[in-house]
Amino acid sequence: SLNKMNFITRLSALCLRKSKLQHRHQSNRRPAVPLGSRLLTDPSKVFEHNMWDHMQWSQEEEESAKKKAAENSLVKVQWEDQDKYEREAKILPEKKRQELRTEERSSEHRRINSTNSFSDKNEMFEEGEKYWTKNYGAGSTAVQGYIYNKKQAKTLTDDPQGKNCGEEPGKLESFPGGDATYRILEVGCGAGNSVFPILKVLCNTPGTFLYCCDFASGAVELVKSHSSYNSAWCSAFVHDVCDDTLPYPFPDEILDVILLVFVLSTIHPDRMQGVVKRLAKLLKPGGMLLFRDYGRYDTAQLRFKKGHCLSENFYVRGDGTRVYFFTKDEVWNMFNLAGLTEVQNLVDRRLQVNRKKKVKMLRVWIQGKFQKPLLPVYNPEETTKRH
């Protein structure tokens, strides 16, 4: 079970690092310092690097951000247009299918198939693990406690096919990954920016299986046609997480980990709670959901012009895609209502710098780990005492 703990720590680091690949400077060079340790102590050196970690906002900066958000929210998108954006949410990714095919795939091939790619990913995992352990203590306490207690570890050892986990022996092979002992789901996998680094790890971790889904069939096709895709370790499928009537290609309560990274913010606020609740049902007791998304007053929110606001802190971009900006309390409330317990929930504030244009941008992300409680042990004496 120690190998599984190490694996999930690395997976957690990947969840954190995925945003770095999307939002940090586009460079193939390895970071000069471990993630999270680049602190701006001398303001005169602000343009020496592209990103600074653990930024503290001044009261003036905080008030300025609130004012900008209030101003760009004054003019709301008309109701008929809001309805159009909701209907077209599923269509937009299909319109960008060719763009995905040319840009994402070529980028992924360069990243995955380059000579140093595998070692780069391993270093990426190590940096993330050190960062979380040093700054938040998540690399030890959370990992040791959140999935495999003694009873579960014994179940995996004595019953590697998972027969005691509510799976009927005759149905083990009836769904992809049915014979796995450790299962992961990435929601909103896109063209596979996280899928293939994870699969690199799975190849060396027996008994593990990765599910990945996206509502854009074009993106799923790209994942399945990639040279690194292997149905022995992975199942990619089209799925709309907002549709509660759609079944998943596997039973409830079998997942050990769910990755929900920059996905929830694209969903209408009225539907978010239902999505989180449904995902929570997929986790086995002790399973973990890893979350990362946009935080309130991120630069991306403040840059919106009037007329792009759909509702409070919910906007539509020029290409028709939508984005919500969360607070830590909102995130906690959603996952708590879904029956998950907070293991980590933090605001990640960074300073992003465009050194060429001499522009500074305050970035804000919310990062969390939420665990499904272990099944309570039935105690007749306790029941008698209560009654």
Automatic annotation (TrEMBL):
<dbReference type="Pfam" id="PF08242">
    <property type="entry name" value="Methyltransf_12"/>
</dbReference>
<keyword id="KW-0819">tRNA processing</keyword>
<feature type="region of interest" description="Disordered">
    <location>
        <begin position="96"/>
        <end position="115"/>
    </location>
</feature>
<dbReference type="InterPro" id="IPR029063">
    <property type="entry name" value="SAM-dependent_MTases_sf"/>
</dbReference>
<feature type="compositionally biased region" description="Basic and acidic residues">
    <location>
        <begin position="96"/>
        <end position="111"/>
    </location>
</feature>
<keyword id="KW-0808">Transferase</keyword>
<dbReference type="GO" id="GO:0052735">
    <property type="term" value="F:tRNA (cytidine-3-)-methyltransferase activity"/>
</dbReference>
<keyword id="KW-0489">Methyltransferase</keyword>
<dbReference type="GO" id="GO:0032259">
    <property type="term" value="P:methylation"/>
</dbReference>
<comment type="similarity">
    <text>Belongs to the methyltransferase superfamily. METL family.</text>
</comment>
<protein>
    <submittedName>
        <fullName>METL2 protein</fullName>
    </submittedName>
</protein>
<feature type="domain" description="Methyltransferase type 12">
    <location>
        <begin position="185"/>
        <end position="289"/>
    </location>
</feature>
<keyword id="KW-0949">S-adenosyl-L-methionine</keyword>
<dbReference type="InterPro" id="IPR026113">
    <property type="entry name" value="METTL2/6/8-like"/>
</dbReference>
<dbReference type="InterPro" id="IPR013217">
    <property type="entry name" value="Methyltransf_12"/>
</dbReference>
<dbReference type="GO" id="GO:0008033">
    <property type="term" value="P:tRNA processing"/>
</dbReference>
